[in-house]
Amino acid sequence: MPTTEILKFTVDNHIATITLNQPETRNSISEYEMIDAIVSACNELNQNSDIRVAILTGAGSAFCSGGNVKDMRDKKGMFSGSSDELADNYRNGIQRIPLALSQVEIPLIAAVNGPAVGAGCDLTCMCDIRIASVKAKFAESFIKVGIIPGDGGAWFLPRIIGISRASQMALTGQMIDAQTALQWNLVSEVVEHDALLVRANELANQIASNPPQVIRATKRLLKLGQTMELPELLDESARVQAQMHATEDHIEAVNAFLEKRPANFKGQ
């Protein structure tokens, strides 16, 4: 498993838990070591057929502070070099995270335990489902440090909360609390802080109890539906549906339903 000092990766009962583990920087993600660890975790999620769903959370009081502002000040790491070098640093650095997460085939649940700021806010938007602790806060705050959302936030955020509210967040840099995030559809649930991972695992277990091939196929179609025209999506759905009807898990699901018993899915 791709566990490192700065990223913990565990698997239990078909559920992977990925924990950003750099509380001293409030789990910043602009360092190359963290970027490599996240990309490695994404590869593991796709390669390990035993994993059916993943939870992403942060250690300590913050979910993720985004870019390391001290490194910005000191022109270190990905924030060093000329203008052209900086552009390449983004392409070869933090932009690898949205590209890697966009290729993850299983559902991703963001369990937002605290502030998710800048690229940290965008990181939650790269997940399929977001649930928040009452201590969570969200800010598309790039403008407050004189930069723009360089990690794809201008693509992710409007698709989730709409262009008006995304513009409000990005152009003011204002912080919103968990209840506002719920009202704005940025998250689907807000729970007590101590119940966050319990609830995330309940939700993950609900997903993981379903046929693994169907989980992956459903996620893929939901993503295609955001950009594909209806006739094309219907055609693709028919093709995928035919494949699902031919699986052993489909027969098991039908029999379990009719026999009123729990199903035992094998991913076949």
What does it look like?
- The mean pLDDT is 95.
- The chain has two domains: 7-208, Alpha-Beta Complex (2-enoyl-CoA Hydratase, Chain A, domain 1); 212-259.
- Helices cover 47% and strands 15% of the residues.
- The protein has helices at 32-47, 69-74, 83-92, 96-102, 119-125, 153-161, 163-172, 178-183, 196-208, 212-224, 230-245, 248-259; strands at 7-12, 15-20, 53-58, 108-112, 115-117, 129-133, 137-139, 175-177, 189-191.
- The radius of gyration is 19 Å and the shape is globular.
- α1 links the parallel β2 and β3.
- A six-stranded mixed beta sheet has the order 1-2-3-4-6-9, sandwiched between helices. A three-stranded mixed beta sheet has the order 5-7-8.
- It has 268 residues and is of the alpha/beta class.
Sequence stretches where pLDDT stays below 50 over 5 or more residues: none
SSE pattern, N- to C-terminal = EEHEHHHEEHEEHHEHEHHHH
Strand order of the largest sheet: 1-2-3-4-6-9
What would the principal axes of the Cα set say about the shape?
A: globular
**Number of H/I helices:** 12
- Biggest beta-sheet profile: 6 strands, mixed
Q: Please tell me the overall pLDDT.
A: 95
Query: How many β strands by DSSP?
Result: 9
The value of Rg in angstroms is 19 Å
Brief rundown of the structure:
The chain has 268 residues and is of the alpha/beta class. 47% of the residues lie in helices and 15% in strands. It is globular and about 65 Å long.
